[in-house]
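Justification of computing resources. Each target in the renewal requires a structure prediction run like the one illustrated here; the chain below, 326 residues long, is used simply to show the kind of job we budget for.
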Amino acid sequence: MSLLIYAESSPDASGGKFKKVAFELASYAKKVAETLGTTVTAVTVNAGDVSELSKYGVDKVLKVSNEKLANFSAKAFADVIKQAAQKESAKIILLSSTTDSLYLAPFLAVGLEAGFASNVVGLPLSTSPFQVKRTAFSNKAFNVTEISTDVKVLSLAKNSYGIFESTAAAVAEDFAPSLNDSDFNVKVESVEKASGKVTIADADVVVSGGRGLKGPENWGLIENLATVLGAATACSKPVSDLGWRPHSEHVGQTGKPVATNLYIAVGISGAIQHIAGINSSKVKVVINADAEAPFFKVADYGIVGDAFDILPRLTEKLAAFKAQNA
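Resulting structure tokens:
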């Protein structure tokens, strides 16, 4: 009986690269497997070099290669993972908390008649009974969830555990699950890909801008700071609604949730929906001319001032610091 993880990669038939969350999930799974005295098996879909997973404790990789899975389909991917779990007699299946994984998780749980716990933020508190700690109420609280079903599905909150190397001699095995036409009732008409140097999903640092930037022509201030920090760029909902930035950069409860090590908000007032989507970030820095902006109430560090004055100076100082410490 192995512990099974779904190691996400870009669903590209030519061979996608693993997402950073796959390595965090593998690290987490390795620790849980040690507690239970079992091994870690990963199932991949159209991934490239799967040997990379062995650095993080994966003992076996089930490689699925199928052109039908070039575009994400929640039902189809859930069916693949279900069949992999049944093949390995896995009682615990671990997913990330990406949009795709959270979309497929209910299908998988129903298919396996499993209990499902999302937003898990730590190792199991107990294995008998099986209990995990989770975030709740848009990351404003925690709860302890007990799962009593024989098979259990968990999704690990991003950036809640960390990435740790634990080399294993992973054995790769081709796996060809059967796919039903009913799994593909949803047809993908087009795919819009973000073009930034660093994706929001993989970023440790995010620099986000709001209407305080006054227009898309000033977005270079955000991009320059992000370049120095090796960060992803993001924006508030009003900015994406106005067309200043693509919707792929919209973060918040109604956009992409982020849980970065550092989140810098520039010219964002701090609507409750935005705060809910970034509240899991470890350090939050706010730059805003309005000292009464709600964002300051949840910020770890705040700067009251004009972003057009502060950002160039901050970028210059950070660039100089990096040069001196290279």
